[in-house]
Specification:
There is one protein chain. This protein has a single domain, classed as 3-Layer(aba) Sandwich (D-Maltodextrin-Binding Protein, domain 2), CATH 3.40.190. About 25% of the residues lie in helices and about 10% in strands. It is built from 3 helices and 3 strands; from the N terminus they run βαβααβ. Strands 2-1-3 form a 3-stranded parallel β-sheet. The chain is globular and about 55 Å long. The termini are far apart.
Amino acid sequence: MRPIKIASRGSKLALVQSEHIRSLLKNLSNGIEISLMKVPTKGDRDKSDFLYKSDSIGFFTSEVEKAVLDGRADIAVHSLKDLPTACTEGLVVAAVPKRESVADALIANRGFRGLHGLNTNKKSVKSV
């Protein structure tokens, strides 16, 4: 079987997601060679302004999708949050893996003494 090349953004989250997909594919066929190709995107390069001010569709996806369309990669891995609502012509969302926990976490520095000092007007603030 010929090797599979996965196109992905180079962000930490994108690479973790791509490694997860790579692992799932390898479990389907142990002998398959699967490589990752980091593709820089406009969203990764342009840090000058807020995203909501941008007219660009596919800010984090278009260059990755182009790698699939021009044959440099076989598949792409994206976060659904980055995908435009309409699929790019010639491409399809072929799979969505099982979603991990959506629970949020609070990360704090060592000086943090508990939730009691936070704004408790929010009903969603809970102590664990």
